[in-house]
């Protein structure tokens, strides 16, 4: 997989975000350990709390369709350098495997992070054993 394919997936998914209340579009694309790319846009609901971020839409699609782990995620939003929220970072902890996180503004303008960069000292399933 070329990372540009992942970036393209996130940029395309952003266009499909359902955001009638904030009008803030976010797109995400995930590379599963099955080699497939899964995408998602944020979805807002009028009563607010059922609203879900693009990152979790893409991750849950990957897991529900057979991927066991996620290897990379690209995130893009209406603001320059849109980063994942804390909830999505915790979901990444659950399913990540050497996860690369790309914060994408365009195919040429992006930054790469590790999960340790974005969520150091995280709580994970290893803490439960
Ligand atoms: Zn989030």
Tell me the helix content. Answer: 25-40%
The major β-sheet equals: 5 strands, mixed
Strand content: 25-35%
Total E-strand runs: 5
| Structural class category | alpha+beta
Bound molecules: zinc ion
Q: Termini, distance in Å?
A: 35 Å
**How is the largest sheet built, in terms of strand order?**
2-1-3-4-5
Detail the poorly predicted runs.
none
Global mean pLDDT: 97
How would you describe this protein?
By secondary structure, the chain is of the alpha+beta class. Helices cover 29% and strands 26% of the residues. The protein is built from 4 helices and 5 strands. It has a 5-stranded mixed beta sheet, sandwiched between helices. A hairpin with a 5-residue loop joins strand 4 (96-104) and strand 5. Helix 2 runs parallel beside helix 3 (86-95). The longest helix has 13 residues, at 3-15. The radius of gyration is 14 Å and the shape is globular. Bound molecules: zinc ion. Zinc ion binds next to helix 3.
Which key features would you list for this structure?
129 residues, alpha+beta, 5-stranded mixed beta sheet, 29% helix, binds zinc ion
Helix/strand layout:
Blueprint: H1 3-15, E1 26-32, E2 37-41, H2 54-64, E3 70-77, H3 86-95, E4 96-104, E5 110-114, H4 115-118
Parallel strand pairs: 3-4
Antiparallel strand pairs: 1-2, 1-3, 4-5
Helix pairs in contact: 2-3
Outline of this structure?
The chain is α+β, with helices and mostly antiparallel strands and 129 residues long. The chain is built from 4 helices and 5 strands, in the order H-E-E-H-E-H-E-E-H. Strands 2-1-3-4-5 form a 5-stranded mixed sheet, sandwiched between helices.
């Amino acid at each position: 997989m070329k990372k540009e394919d992942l970036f393209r997936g996130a940029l395309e998914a952003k266009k499909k975000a359902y955001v009638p209340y904030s009008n803030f579009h976010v797109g995400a694309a995930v590379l599963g350990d099955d080699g497939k790319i899964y995408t998602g846009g944020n979805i807002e609901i009028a009563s607010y709390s059922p609203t879900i971020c693009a990152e979790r839409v893409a991750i849950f699609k990957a897991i529900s369709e057979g991927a066991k782990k996620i290897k990379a995620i690209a995130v893009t939003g209406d603001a320059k350098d849109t980063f994942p929220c804390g909830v999505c970072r915790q979901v990444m902890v659950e399913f990540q495997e050497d996860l690369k996180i790309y914060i994408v503004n365009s195919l040429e303008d992006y930054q790469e992070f590790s999960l340790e960069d974005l969520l150091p000292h995280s709580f994970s399933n290893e803490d439960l054993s």
